[in-house]
Amino acid sequence: MPRFSLAQISRALWAATLFTLPVTSFRYFPFLGDSTLVRPLALYPLAALLTVLIVRWWRGEIANPWAGSLIVLIAFLLAVLLSTMIGSLYAPLELRGNTFWERAVRAWVTLVIGAMFFVAAIWMNRDESDVRFSVRWLTLGLLLHFVWSLVQALSFYTELLPRTTLKDWQLTFSMRGPVKNRRFAGLAYEPSWLAGQIATLYMPWLFAALVTRTRILRARWMDLSMLGIALFLLIFTYSRGGTLYAILAALVTLAFIGRGQTTRLRMWFGETFMQPAQKIRWRNIFVALLMVVAVVGLGKLAFSTRTGQRYMTKLTTSFTRADTFSEFLTVNTAGARFAYAWGAMTAFNEHPWTGAGLGSSGFYILQNIPDWAKTTLFEVAHTLDPQSSLFPNPKNLYVRLLAETGLLGFALYLAFQFSLLGEIRTLLKSDSGKFIALAALFTWVALALGNFTQDSLTIPNLWINMGILAGFARSYRFAPAKEIA
Predict the structure, then answer these.
(1) What is the DSSP code string of 23-84?
(2) What is the mean pLDDT of the chain?
(3) How far is CA 475 from the centre of its chain?
(4) Is 95 helix (H, G, I), strand (E, B) or coil?
(5) How far is the C-alpha of 60 from the C-alpha of 318, rounded, in Å?
(6) What whole-number distance in Å separates Cα of residue 9 and Cα of residue 3?
(7) 3-state secondary structure (DSSP) of residue 174
(8) Nearest Cα to 340, choosing from 318, 361, 383, 369?
């Protein structure tokens, strides 16, 4: 019977962690109520991985994971701890069976889980081969989303798979069945979560590989196919936010690849179609046409469906139908998010320096929701129902941090993010780290925008790619790496 070293075991567990990231709301977690929606399946192999890594560190097989950004993160955690201790003195009244300390402990668990993903990513990405390994398994995880989205498509658009059967299958592993409006959610809880994963986990690497001509899988056509899959899934999520974040992140990344690379990319497209007949490279023409057809064709296909037509109608008519800002938000189904964030800011107004304590912003929301939202938004009315057991949340990470950790915690969180941006800037100056830097920049921009519409600190999207960046940057400072190819 073969014996495996701890190094091999840790590598296998890291691969399992990355491969299972698509399952965001795994049903089988002990001690969690139905209201806990962020339940990454990857937490199981992650916990085993960290146990193995700690044993290896204790034995002296690996060094500690300290990186500059990790030190800033620890400072942020200490500020959050201070705000939680002070927030407990404010003693907010129990809300729907939730006390301050119950919410605080719950919030701290989620924050620690997120930090675990970050530390593991730093520890497991010390050099080029580690990064290549991580990116490959991340990319393969995207296939899980694709396969299950095809299963969903069979049920949505054909009679081959009854909707009840699809629901039964999906509920065996997820907290939620398929959505009713034919939007692809893959293995994620909802379509917007899938779009968020694509924009912040998968597309950054595929896009950076394209512009730097770096190979992720065995052949370049495989990388292009995976990029096509990412675009296909992103379009059919019909997530306005996720699509916008991906587009803006791509534009910002293109602006930083350097004039020389931009020129080469533009010349490649031009030369592909302008070559004399005897010098035509049919493979290049095929690749260029495939890219154009993929974007145009998928967009046309998506918005020719009933769901796509409703999506475009809502998006275009909101500018003409809305007479006020609140009506504009309501038409675009963003009113509830704005109302919850507005209510949470009351906690910041009352406790600007230290906040109200981690996890406590929900105690301030219900009584401070704007009046217009109470009468026009069904979601808000449902939350305000005395019979409801829902505990409100800000749905905006920046508002949540301001409300719960105050200016001190918020400033340190920004310092953490800008320390990561500093690592990106350092790697952008080198040829060897440009692929990683561009992928990290894409992720950083997409996360900076995406945090306006989500407030969870558990979601691995916040931590994985940034941890890979921090781990590689730490080793790069001591020993410049070879160019990834």
Answers:
(1) --BBS--TT--TT---B-TTHHHHHHHHHHHHHHHHHTSS-----HHHHHHHHHHHHHHHHH
(2) 83
(3) 25
(4) strand
(5) 61
(6) 10
(7) strand
(8) 369
